[in-house]
Structures are given as C-alpha cells and as structure tokens.
Amino acid sequence: MCGIVGYVGSGQALEVLLHGLTRLEYRGYDSAGLAVARPGSITIAKAEGKLSRLKGIVDPTALSGHLGIGHTRWATHGVPSDRNAHPHSDTSGDFVVVHNGIVENFRTLRDQLELRGVTFRSDTDTEVLAHLVAEAFDGDLTEAVRYAIGQAQGAYALVAMTAHRPDRIVAARMTSPLVVGLGENETFLASDIPAILKYTQRFQLVEDGEIVTVTEAGAAFETFSGNPIEKKPFTVDWETDSVFKGGFDHFMEKEIHEQPEVIARTMGTRIRAGADGGERVALEGLRWLDQSPDGVNRIRITACGTAYHAGLVGRILFEQLAGIPGEVAYAHELRYGNPLFEEGLLTLAISQSGETADTLAAGRLSREHGSRLLALTNVVGSSLAREADDVIYTWAGPEISVASTKAYIAMLVGETLLALEMGRRSGRLSPAEEGELVAELRGLPSKATRILESPDEIVRLAEELAKWPNVYFIGRGLDHATAMEGALKLKEISYIHAEAMPSGELKHGTLALISPGVPVVAVATNPQVHSKVLLGLQEVKARRGQVIAVAFEDDQEIGSVSDHVIRIPRTAHLLSPILAAIPLQLLAYHTARRLGRDIDQPRNLAKSVTVE
Ligand code: M6R
Predict the structure, then answer these.
(1) Contacts (Cβ under 8 Å, ≥6 apart) of 207
(2) Which of 103, 413, 544, 557 lies at a 20 to 30 A Cα distance from 241?
(3) What are phi and psi of 173, to 5 degrees?
(4) Looking at the whole model, is its pTM more than 0.85?
(5) Residues paired with residue 565 on neighbouring β-strands, in sequence order
(6) For residue 215, which of 142, 277, 271 has the smallest C-alpha distance?
C-alpha cells in the first residue's frame, strides 16, 4: 500500500520521481506528492487524487534539483485530501518524509509532540515521523531517523531528507518493501523494482530492521542498532516492456491476453521427459520434498483475495492428486484465529506480491509454531519469498492492474505442478496418470488462446450485465472456486454487487433474490455433479432468472437450462479452473469498460495491501 520513490544524483530528481510515481501508482492513488531539495530549502508539491492532478500542478523550475522523494498514497489515517497527501514536513519545512505503512502508536506520539508545542498540519500517522526526525537532528540525518523509528511501533518503510544535508536520503524498513537502485553517479530508492527499472538493472534490497543512507555514490546499510551491513548488488534482466500496455487499452486487458504465455512460462522447465518416455513434473529446489517427502500429513493454505481463491482450487488438487487433506484459511482470519498446529502440517502461503501484510503474518505465525512454510508467489525477492522455507515462483511477470488475472492463472498452474509432484512421490499417481495430466497441461496455452480469440459473445453479455445492480455466481467444487473469483473480478472493477456460492446453497436463501432477468452466472464444468447443476439451473429458470453458463464446448445439455452459454475448450476437470476463469475475467473487464470504470485502478483499492 502506498508507493515510494527517491533519487539522489547528477540528474534532475523531478523526472525520475514522476516516472517512478507513474509506475507505482497502482499501489495507491488517493493522492500523490513529491519534494525536491536544494541547499537550504525544500519544495513540496502534492495533490489529492490521481497522479495526473499532481502532474498538472508541478512547476519544473520551482522543483529543479538533484535530490528528491515522492509518494503515491492509499489512505489509512486521514481522508484522501491535499493536506493528508505525502510528503509531510516538520514545522520548519526543512525535514520531509514519505512513509508506507502504519505507525500504530501515532496517537501517543502525537499527544507527546503536541505537549512539546508541535502543531500538526495533517491527520496522518506519518507526520509524527517528520517532527521526530527534526527534533532529533543534530547534523546527522541517519541518527535522526534512527531516533524516530526507535519511537515508532508498526510496519513501515520510511524515507527522509533534509535541507541541511541535500546530498542524502535516509530510509528505514520494517515490513514494507523498499529497494535501492544503483546507477552511475546516481542512486535510486523505490517500493519496487519496475519503478526504477528504466534507470538501472542493479539493485540492493533493504531488509526488515535496516537503515540505508543513500548518496549519489551508492548506499550504506546498517542495522537499526547501527551495525554496518555489507550487501552485494544483484542484477535483474526483466524486460522494461512488460510494464507498458503494449497496444491494449488497459493493463488488465493486456494481462488477460498474456495468459497463454504465462501458463507455458509457469510450466517452463518444470516438465521433463520421464524414463518411460512420458512427461513428468520436475519441481526442484523444494528442500522439504527432497528431505522428507512423506512428512506432510496436511496442507493449510493461507492467502487473501484472488490468491485465496487459488487456494480453494489448490486444496482440491492436493487432496485429489496427492491424497493429502487440506484446508484454506483467509490469512487475516488465521493470524488471529488461534489455529491448531500439529506434526506434519505444511503451510502454503499464496501471494502475488509476496508483500500482503496478513499473509506474511499468517506465514510467520505458522513458522513460529513449527510448521514448514512454503511460498507460492510471483515476486522474486519479496518478503514472503525470503521468509519462507521453500518457494515456488509463478513467473507471471509484473502484474500492474489492481485486478489480478495472470497471476491467478499462474498460481493455479503452480499448484497443479506441486500436486502432481507430490502425487507421484507419494505413489498415489501412476506415471500414466501423471503423463495424461501433464499432456493436458501442455495443451492449455493453445486452448486459452482460443478463448481469447472469440470475445464477441462475452462483450455482448457484458452489455447485459452492465444493466443489473446484482449478479450471482454459482458452481460446485472447483467450479465454486472459479465462481468466487469471477464474482470478485466483477465487483472490484465494475462496482456491481456480485455474490458467489456453491450451486446447492442457492435454494437455502439466495433464491429469494432471483426475479425475472436477474443474472446468474453458472460455472458448469464439473462432470461429477453435472446433472445436479442442471437441476439447480432449472430452479433459477423457474423464477425466470437469466442464466449465463460457462461450460465445455461439447456440453449438449447446458443449453436447455441457460439463456446464454460461454463455451470453453474441454480439458481434464482438475485443470478446468485454469480455462474457466478466463471468460469470467473478460466478462468483468468488458462490463467495467461498458460502465466507463477506472479498470486498472478501481476506487478504494490498491495492488498490494501491506497494512492490516
Ligand atoms: O499480492 P497478493 O496476492 O497477496 O494480494 C492478495 C489480494 O489483495 C489480491 O488478490 C486482491 O484481491 C486483488 N485485487 C484481486 O483482484
């Protein structure tokens, strides 16, 4: 939540800050602001609303200088407004900070500062940090930041600068992500790598409990208690193109269309020829699998949002393919739910960003209780990846749209690979069974492409959905997980109320809401209960509800109980969530588009939720 960027070097800070903020806007867009320092003075520009408002008011002459910091905000303390926008300064205006996270004891700190005569100009928790830094400064900005974070409790990334030392930025990290980028006579700071990838490919990660002093010569790291840390830079070879829209109108649309390639990439080199000539999964680098493959008796999956829906699919895959019972828990529930831990419990934490605060906390709690923690994440070097015992990367590439699409599909592929690997090792799956599913997996990219090639029916249905205030999504088993994900996609970007439930649950209450025309989206790929699904749809039709079914292309029966059928290529039932999610993503996208919504940056949301 919130994006931070910083620059010190021989170039103009303003250009770097605006570019970085553009890349970081997905993290929060309640307001944006920046500050540029020159010897003896700091100039701040900030504005409520999207970055375009800030861009409209920045004066390059007033903001010329070689040292600066910037911020995009997702509001936690204080409404979105100009006065609550970052950066925040102390009373003199000589000390300026930006901050991502929450200062939990800010009320106490604010009361103490007010007793010492400080007048506050915002409602934010962040402002206390600016005053604390100013109060402690005696010529050494690093020491002043150390003092401020010593007072503060919570999760944060803090970045500070002062007009008295216009050659440096000092940052500290406790939980919220921060990375240093190294250039020639210039150094960058940002919440994530893509924000500064245009300028450098050499990075250093700021870890929890570290302070970093950044000058144009580079970055000096130390612990909160002042011990210096040697840190080797690493290089990333990501394509900068992946953070552009590439001819699509929205990142979401682009990311949906990348999915065939993403499915193939997630499988990547993890599928090899077996001794019998058939193909098999080869998931490497999972130490627990190598050391004690039989040591897992149960898998507890924890995640939030779309990643949680991937977990719902994963639970069924692990049970069906590996014979290991599982459970799925929202991370925010798990962390405060006094869960029970037993020998042989593997915790699988799923997170696109690897920075979701609740998921990190649930993972930490599990490790503290002796559970092995396996991360399934998209972001290399993310907090989750670093804290887990083992990691499976999804390799979906940077996902910019707030609504997750390709990262979800990649999670499903990652879980399938893991379930197949565990199933083979446990002896539950024969080589032939594994080979069959692997062959089906291999066929998914071209089947996904076919879905994407014929959007006309979906665009037409989206026009219909856009007229309704409520839409219901139903399905059974794996189809229920897909229905949950379809409903989340629709509500988060179109703002239409959408509710998902198992098909069998409809008649226990929600059927009362079905009146003529009300749309019910039914995911119907589950062969075991197909006849039951048809029965449920009859019940909807009897109330003259409008049934939109997602079904396999050769399903002969579904048409008789549906008003519209979105057909997808047939695949093995256990893999069907990977294909069935795609039309629902498109349906949400085109509905939101029809309604003129802000698709990539829906109101009130942010890409990664790094606060509780
Ligand atoms: O980065 P994570 O996967 O941990 O994020 C979890 C959720 O915040 C995320 O999936 C959210 O629900 C998406 N906006 C859904 O599209």
Answers:
(1) 173, 386
(2) 413
(3) -125, 130
(4) no
(5) 549
(6) 142
Say if residue 240's pLDDT is above 70: no
Q: Is residue 161 in contact with ligand 1, taking CB distance under 6 Å?
A: no
> What is the token pair recorded at 420?
């197949």
Q: What is the pLDDT of residues 282-311, one digit of tens each?
A: 987 787 776 665 688 999 999 999 999 999
CA-based nearest residue to 462, from 271, 592, 374: 592
Average confidence score pLDDT of the chain: 93
Give start and end residues of each alpha helix (H) in 278-405.
287-291, 305-322, 331-334, 357-368, 383-387
For residue 21, the cross-strand partners are none
Q: Mean pLDDT over residues 484-503, rounded?
A: 97
Which ligand 1 atom sits closest to the C-alpha of 356?
4
Measure 556 CA to ligand 1 centroid, in angstroms.
36
CA 434, CA 133: separation in Å to the nearest integer? 60
> What is the residue whose two structure tokens read 């000539």?
277
For residue range 541-567, what is the model confidence (pLDDT) as tens digits?
999 999 999 999 999 999 999 999 999
**DSSP symbols for 271-304:** EEE-TTSSEEE-----HHHHH-GGG-SEEEEEE-
Cα 167 off chain centre by: 34
Tell me the Cα Rg of the chain. Answer: 25
Helix (H, G, I), strand (E, B) or coil at 107: helix
Binding site membership of 175 for ligand 1 (Cβ less than 6 Å)? no
Reduced to 3 states (helix: H, G, I; strand: E, B; else coil), residue 245 is coil
The end-to-end CA distance of the chain, in Å, is 10
Distance between CA atoms of residues 216 and 96, nearest Å: 19
Q: Determine how many CB atoms are found less than 10 A away from the CB of residue 389.
A: 16
Which residues carry out catalysis? 2, 607
pLDDT for res 239: 63
How confident is the model over 130-170, as pLDDT tens digits? Answer: 999 999 999 999 999 999 999 998 878 999 999 999 999 99
